[in-house]
Amino acid sequence: MATGENKTMETAADVAAYLDTVEPAERQADGRMVAALMARLSGEPPRLWGPSIIGFGRYHYRYDSGREGDMCRIGFAPRKAELVFYLAGLDDADFTALGRHRRGKGCLYVKRLADIDMGALEALIVQSLAHMDGLYPR
Q: Where would I find the YdhG-like domain in this sequence (predicted)?
């Protein structure tokens, strides 16, 4: 089995206290709203993964190389410049209704929640959770 500690691990840090430190104030408010949304949709409490990812649920992965670890099923990070969503299984998703955003490999970037359609975001989160449930049943 491959060794080496994963960089992003679940911590015991207080999520609410972390959100109190987020700047600017609008990002802090958006972070609280996203945390509530993801908790409701996942049925899981928020946990801090590493210094800044707020994750919900967990799964265990193992690569062909033997490397393995745990990660949150869905999550987000309220960064200074934008919200970063960690959602899987959205390659065939329809992002047209979402509004202003950009995408990277496995990430969705949103400057402010006011720029997007919250119903479309909710649908993407639900799709990601279903994808994770298919790959990693609870």
A: 28-127
Long-range (24+ apart) CB contacts under 8 A made by 11-16 are 11/47, 11/48, 11/49, 11/50, 13/48, 14/48, 15/46, 15/47, 15/48, 15/54
Please name the residue that has the structure tokens 């109190």.
20
* Ordered structural domains, the chain, with CATH: 15-135 (3.90.1150)
pLDDT tens profile 34-45: 999 999 999 999
Q: Which amino acid is at 80?
A: K
Tell me how far apart the alpha carbons of residues 54 and 45 are, in angstroms, rounded to a whole number.
10
- DSSP summary character for residue 89: S
3-state secondary structure (DSSP) of residue 26: helix
Cα–Cα distance between 98 and 78 in angstroms, integer? 18
DSSP string, 33-58: HHHHHHHHHH---EEEETTTEEEES-
For 32, what's the count of Cα atoms within 13 Å in the CB-facing half-sphere? Answer: 12
Q: How far apart are CA 124 and CA 15, in angstroms?
A: 23
